[in-house]
Design goal:
With 81 residues, the chain is mainly α. Helix content is 79%, strand content 5%. α1 runs antiparallel to α3.
C-alpha cells in the first residue's frame, strides 16, 4: 500500500513538472511575438524568456524535483542517507 502511494505521488509530481516544462518550452515560444510587447530589464520579454528566463525556470524545476523527491523518500523510509 505504501509502495503504491509513493509511486502515485512520484508520478503526480513528475507529470505536474512536465506540464510546466511543456508550457514554458512550447506555449511561451508560440506566443513570443505577443510577449515582445512587454519588456524585462530593457529586453523584449519573448527574447528574454528564450535567452535566459526559460533556463532559470528549468533549473528551478530540477531543484524543486530534487527537493520534493528527497522529502518523499524520507517520508516513506527509502532515503539512502
Amino acid at each position: 500500500m505504501a509502495h503504491d502511494l509513493y509511486w502515485r505521488k512520484t508520478r503526480r509530481l513528475t507529470f505536474g513538472l512536465l506540464v510546466i516544462w511543456v508550457f514554458i518550452t512550447f506555449v511561451l515560444t508560440w506566443y513570443a511575438k505577443e510577449l515582445n510587447a512587454f519588456s524585462l530589464f530593457g529586453f523584449p520579454l519573448g527574447f528574454y524568456m528564450a535567452a535566459q528566463g526559460s533556463l532559470v525556470i528549468y533549473l528551478a524545476i530540477i531543484w524543486y524535483y530534487n527537493r520534493r523527491m528527497r522529502q518523499l523518500e524520507a517520508e516513506f523510509g527509502i532515503d539512502d542517507e
